[in-house]
Amino acid sequence: MPRSALGYDRLVPFTVEDVDRFEQSRPRLEAIAYRLLGSADEAQDLVQETFLRWQAADVDRVDIPEAWLTKVLTNLCLNQLTSARARRETYVGRWLPEPLLGGDPMLGPADTAEQREAVSYAVLTLMERLAPNERAVYVLREAFDYPHREIGEILGITEAASQQTFHRAKQHVAYAKTRPDIDKAAAQRIVEEFLAAATSGQTDELVRLLTKDVIAIGDGGGKVPARTKAFEGALAVAKFVWGMFTPGAAKRAIVGGTPELYAWTANGEPAVVAIAGGRVVAIMCLEVTAEGIAACRTQANPDKLARATGQWTSADHGDPLLVM
Q1: Can you list the domains of the chain with their CATH numbers?
Q2: If we measure between CA atoms, which residue out of 114, 97, 168 comes closest to residue 136?
Q3: How far, CA to CA in Å, does 304 sit from each of 92, 258, 276?
Q4: Rg of the chain taking only CA atoms, in angstroms
Q5: What residues contact residue 224 under an 8 Å CB cut-off, 6+ apart?
Q6: What is the Cα–Cα distance from 148 to 146, expressed in whole angstroms?
Q7: Pairing of strands 210-219, 292-299
Q8: Does residue 101 sit in helix, strand or coil?
Q9: What is the pLDDT of residue 164?
Q10: Do residues 311 and 246 make contact, with C-beta atoms less than 8 angstroms apart?
Q11: pLDDT score at 3
């Protein structure tokens, strides 16, 4: 396709109105990029790259700016996902997405159960199984309700191919257990009960909250100690969690202060947020099903917690549930 057909080769000066048109789309573009990449920093970088391409384009020849911007951004994300797979082969330990605290606008639309599910930490993790094209189709369709015809135009595939790819992606991220919708109040209760059991000294109390096949995994990025292999099974996870929430000088040394634990939500899931020295030092997302807690996924890589720290400092978070 020639460059001019995409709206490049600007013929007129870039105007304030052109900037405004882009800025109106920025929140949606950031939400798409975050869901595709699992990284807020990378999402912001590629949205900015999309802006530069918009700035260089002859935007008066772009019939539908939203479609043009989505196409450019999605293809930038596909290139990033392809290179990210190679980078993650050398990543130290387990790679987990960057969690976003409740209220972060980058989480995007949450009007339907499908939209909330598509940005849950559990599903973002499962989406790592998908090929880049599958991930793009899944996000655009499930989270943003794009018609398959438009998805096909964005990705350069047929409408039928988009439908088939979406069906395949849905199968890959399908989950057998029922996950209930959880509001902030419910998340608070779940985390309070979880922490009470984790600090009771009785592993039986914690086992009771977990599913039999529960897993616990963490991402330290080689900067914070995190076990590479997942803990599996209720008893193994209960012992691990009990040890994690047992106060100690070693833990305080690792995080650079005395951790304070709060109940919050991250990506729509109940989360334990650990704060030390005014920074978010860990977020443990609890995947809740009708049968109990099915997974504890902890993000402790400081590179993936900077945005959460910024969000936390402006939030009304009240008093901690536990000081370690």
Answers
A1: 3-173 (no CATH), 184-323 (3.10.450.50)
A2: 168
A3: 14, 20, 16
A4: 21
A5: 254, 281, 282, 300, 301, 302
A6: 6
A7: parallel
A8: strand
A9: 97
A10: no
A11: 41
How is residue 10 written in tokens?
Answer: 């600007």
106-160 tens-digit pLDDT: 999 999 888 998 999 999 999 988 999 999 999 999 999 999 999 999 999 999 9
Cβ 273 vs Cβ 285: under 8 Å: no
The pLDDT value recorded for residue 187 is 92
Are the C-beta atoms of 15 and 47 separated by less than 8 Å? no
Positions in the chain short of pLDDT 70: 1-13, 175-178
Rounded distance, CA 294 to CA 177, Å? 9
**Helices 40-56/65-88 angle, 10° precision:** 140
Residue 251 has a pLDDT of 78
Rounded to whole angstroms, the Cα distance separating 266 from 273 reads 9
pLDDT at 10 (0 to 100): 54
Q: Tell me the C-alpha to C-alpha distance, in Å, between residue 82 and each of 79, 97, 131, 173.
A: 5, 16, 9, 19
